[in-house]
Amino acid sequence: MSNQKKRNFQIEAFKHRVVVDPKYAEKTWKILEHAIHEIYNHNASGLSFEELYRNAYNMVLHKFGEKLYSGLVTTMTAHLKEISKSIEAAQGDLFLEELNRKWNDHNKALQMIRDILMYMDRTYIPNSRKTPVYELGLNLWRDNIIHSGKIQSRLLSTLLELVHRERTGEVIDRGLMRNTIKMLMDLGSSVYQDDFEKPFLEAEIRLNEEIERIAHYLDVKSEAKITNVVEKEMIANHMTRLVHMENSGLVNMLLDDKYEDLGRMYNLFKRVPNGLSMIRDVMTSHLRETGKQLVTDAESSKDPVEFVQRLLDERDKYDKIICQAFSNAKTFQNALNSSFEYFINLNSRSPEFISLFVDDKLRKGLKGVSEEDVEIILDKVMMLFRYLQEKDVFEKYYKQHLAKRLLSGKTVSDDAERSLIVKLKTECGYQFTSKLEGMFTDMKTSQDTMQGFYANHLELAEGPTLVVQVLTTGSWPTQPTITCNLPTEMAALCEKFRSHYLGTHTGRRLSWQTNMGTADIKATFGKGQKHELNVSTYQMCVLMLFNNADRLSYKEIEQATEIPASDLKRCLQSMACVKGKNVLRKEPMSKDIGTDDAFFVNDKFTSKFYKVKIGTVVAQKESEPEKLETRQRVEEDRKPQIEAAIVRIMKSRRVLDHNNVIAEVTKQLQSRFLANPTEIKKRIESLIEREFLERDSDDRKLYRYLA
Amino acid sequence: MWEPLVFDRWIPKILSWYVCTPKVQSHMLVISWHMQASTMCEYTKEEFCNGLRDLRVDTLEVFREKLTSIREELKDEEKYRKIYNFAFGWATEKGEKAMQLETAFDMWQLLFAERKYPLLDHWIQFLQVTTFASFGKFGQFSIGSYCVVMPLPLEQTQHNRPVSKDVWFQLLEFFKQVQKGLAGYDAEGAWPCLIDEFVEYLEENGIHPSEYAT
């Protein structure tokens, strides 16, 4: 950078004297004044902006600013006075229109004038502290028009009247109204406040006073009518349309989880009577419809776990909607609950599926899930359980599934199992769960028993290990079955256990449920492949036979084991016909077991696993005949419960009429199942026949309790 | 007042009248009602004597006259009801709580003979049809909101069973109520299930009230 010294240049003004025509100012102003007239008369097209601007510029430059300014005020005022007269002359409704039109004219004119006088606006006005042209124009409008005696009061009353008219349901020109209000705002917020807002608010106050007056000495209904006019106009009349709008109505909002839109609708509709119930009704019928589809869809019934998961998802979705958009209103929650109750019970398999869902979770689904999360899942299941009408059916399945879990040692978490039992107990009372709890007790006691057995028979440490689970009759879903023939070494062991057990528990009877057991056996195949096979007790019995024989016919096996035919076939099928599990080989090769088949050990058996599980006992959806059988058992179990309820009620009431008996019995049993009125009636008849009850001799609808 | 002697002497006579008079059965029933006899065709001495006292019968001649006029008593609505209800215990086998169907059919024919309840024939037909059809029939019963179709074991079909006292008593009430058509029947009206099923049977078979209105 150079250190050269900067030189300052100065440009001198070009000095020459301009001779000014003494009439110059007057002449120039005349031109400008004429232009302003032309502008107001809509004749501006013939004017030259450049010429006018130059004239105004020159006037200011030659120190005639004051003359220009005062001339403008005078001219504009004169025009506004004319305008004022024409507005005053406007009749009725035309008043506001005329005012508005003139205001628009004035505004346009004002803009043109400001442009022409721009130089004055920039130099003369700030220096002499005068009001800028545009503002001046507005002030003049205010003083000459808005505040003119005849216009001011008329404008106010017109505006307030229009507001009132709209409130009472008439249609008004809102554009006109808006323009006028905007005008007042443009004139300065003080104008708006003084000329409109204050009186307007006073009107509000009056209106409120009016309402108060109504409240004091008129019929209350009138008040509601008046205040509802606006709400009705704005919301109620459009409600139905809003709700049912295609592609954007309530149903679509629900489908797409539009929490904000739903919330907005909720808050708006809250203001009018029936507004919320309309939303609720639409939600309910939509929910019922989709729920019904969900539970009756044959596809979704195929996978019980998926079926329940979908129900839970649906429930979560609506929980969230009600929580986020419908301010968690109780009535909406009730609607949600009643909808679920409605459709869950449309599918008679819901109790079975919910139990299967729990089974799935407690077998594997909860592995590695934290304790709190387990609780959350179980609570959700309980919520579905609460909707079930046939809780006894659930209990039946739950018992079956729990038994399988316990006996196969497949339960993931003992805590989770017990937690659910506690929940069921809280919900339905101890009777509901006493048998389930009995099953847990049996498991624990059996452990102790086995320890005691082996402590007393130390010589048994060598040889096969026996694990016996002693199940209390009645607590478990057991069926009387024929005990099959056990391999001799096992039979001897069982006999030892029997004498040990009966030695410590006199007066009991033991029967072996060989259909429910499992066994782990070590097997060595043809080329020395060693595997550990996890099989059922039946399968063990069959396999052990091959220690002493290379070939066995179906009939030989049947004779040796005495396993019931259907079970034997299933058991052979799982060992001889399933790829990867085929530890046996059969002749002829086929998928089904025939009574003339012959069986061999499959010397070529291979598996990439050392431990091979054959024929797992996993709870599955019941087949149709099984389902019917369970249903029949449920029906039979209900009969004594219904009779007990009738007797309880009649014992305390002594005399009660038919319909009340039905109602009370239904109510009493509702926590377990929904009693069928015809069935109740049959039970009543049976009790009459057995002389627990009689009909009143005069009123045949009245029953009496016979002590 | 009445000696056991009288009883012994009168009974053979009375029995002979019972057998030879054409309409003897309804006389027998009404007389038995007066005697409050516990079993059909059997009177204890006590029942017999109390009955005669009740009927104000002191000679065999009076008794015979009574036999011809006693049927009139069946026209009295209140008495008829009492006799109808009495008939159940009277005609039911000793030691049984319900009446065998065949006996019930006979008793209804007898009791309703002059009443002309047009539903009687349908009722008997209904019981007969369902009795024979109940073997292997697929019953339908609904539980809650769905329906299961399954074969019903025989003992589950009401119809094959003897007529219970309740059904017997209620049937008369039912016939009276529906005399002018089924409007008199209320499904919620605590009727025995068998009667409910009978109404269903009528409706299924298109038997309309107008056709059996007298």
How would you state the average pLDDT of chain B, rounded?
72
Q: Strand pairing plus helix content of chain A: what structural class?
A: mainly alpha
The major β-sheet of chain A equals: 3 strands, mixed
| Tally of discrete structural domains of chain B | 2
* Span between termini of chain A: 125 Å
Please count the beta strands of chain A (DSSP E, at least 2 residues each): 9
Given the structure, what is the number of helices of chain B? 10
Beta-strand portion of chain A reads: 5-15%
What would you call the structural class of chain B?
A: mainly alpha
Low-pLDDT sequence parts of chain A:
215-220
Q: Overall 3D geometry of chain B? A: elongated
Output the strand order for the largest sheet of chain A: 1-2-6
Q: What spatial order of strands do you see in the largest sheet of chain B? A: 1-2
CATH superfamily of the largest domain in chain B: Cullin, PONY binding domain
Average pLDDT of chain A, rounded to a whole number, is 83
Q: How many β strands of chain B by DSSP?
A: 2
Please tell me how large the radius of gyration of chain A is: 48 Å
Domain DCUN1 (chain B): 1-203
Protein name (chain B): Defective in cullin neddylation protein
Pfam families (chain B): Cullin_binding (PF03556)
Function (chain B): Neddylation of cullins play an essential role in the regulation of SCF-type complexes activity.
